[in-house]
Amino acid sequence: MTTTNPAGPAPVNLRNPAQLLAALPYLIGFRPEKSVVVLGHRAPEGNRLGLVLRGDLPRREDRARQARALAPRFARRAHTGVTLVIVGGRRRSGGPPPHAGFVRELTDALGEFGLPVLHAMWTAGITAGAPWACYADADCGGELPDPRATVTAAVATEGGLVVFDSRDELAALLAPRSPEALARRAERLARQSSLPWPEATCVADAAAVIRAAFDRQRRGEEPPTDEEAVLLASALTITEIRDGCLAMAVPPGGPAAREAERLWLTLVRELPAPERAEPATLLGYTAFMRGDGTFAGMALENALEAAPGHVLAGLLTTVLRSGFPPEQLLGLALAADPAGVAGFGLAPPDIGAERAG
Fold first, then answer.
1. If you write DSSP's letter for every residue of 132-172 in order, what string do you get?
2. Domain ranges, ordered by start, for the chain
3. FRET label pair with 230: which of 77, 91, 157, 316, CA 20 to 30 Å apart?
4. For 183-206, how does the pLDDT look when each residue is reduced to its tens digit (9 = 90+)?
5. Above 90 in pLDDT, residue 164?
6. Is 95 in contact with 88 (CB distance < 8 Å)?
7. Three-state DSSP class for 270?
């Protein structure tokens, strides 16, 4: 399993090993365990964070395969080198950090693409006081500071970023609220032979349904009723509406985008398959645009589980796994709304100006 993060907004000091290790939960959204984390150094100076990949630590027989899978993804972007981090395992007294063989495999694989390993580190876990060490320097090491007391943590917390104790805890955000409600809604949707609005006013009526959902969210109302959920599922099947929802991801991390992301998350939990694929894809795109590749990947996995042939979810998954930066997909949002329904009453006034430029 691999999770991907483009360069996010949280600052991190790539030259301070202990601070970098303590910042990892804020870079990938959860506290990694039994993991390999590869952090790219962006060109030209190499002192800025680039692509970040996390994978489960492989079995011995899978080391070379995983190393060959990770390395090419850093070659597709302008990196000057990488930092490797191994999380987990016990260090024998007087011996090297564990998983040194896997670090050598990764170093060789990255070297084939001209990417040097600038630093390779190990830590038992991302907790205050956990031991850490370097693979190339026996005198390099110590104990981790409290991850909550780092500059990265302070900036992330101020920006509203929530860090989870595990990947499973983060993934639980996408779990259905009520399986019974999903079953009822699936039955109603299966009986529905056409969209519930006249053809002449279909897009406008569907946009009104989305707008009403935002209004309910702002008022802090309960989750949607069965009728509301079915109407929302129907609305998101309309291409103009889905594209207008994509456009709400711009500007990334802005008030409208954050509000939209909350609604897409709610609908992922409230809609059955295959209709769930639409809000899950919107959630993945919006999260990716604000730099949260980990959560974006989870949302897109959810979409493809609900509808394995979903074209947009599949394309976005390919882009995410290829390591493309979010800004390369900005045009998708800006060009996604030819009907002019984006925002549903929420879009900030400068989006039109950005689009015109």
1. EEESS-TT-EEEPPPGGGSHHHHHHHHTT---BSSHHHHHG
2. 2-164, 171-356
3. 316
4. 999 999 999 999 999 999 999 999
5. no
6. no
7. helix
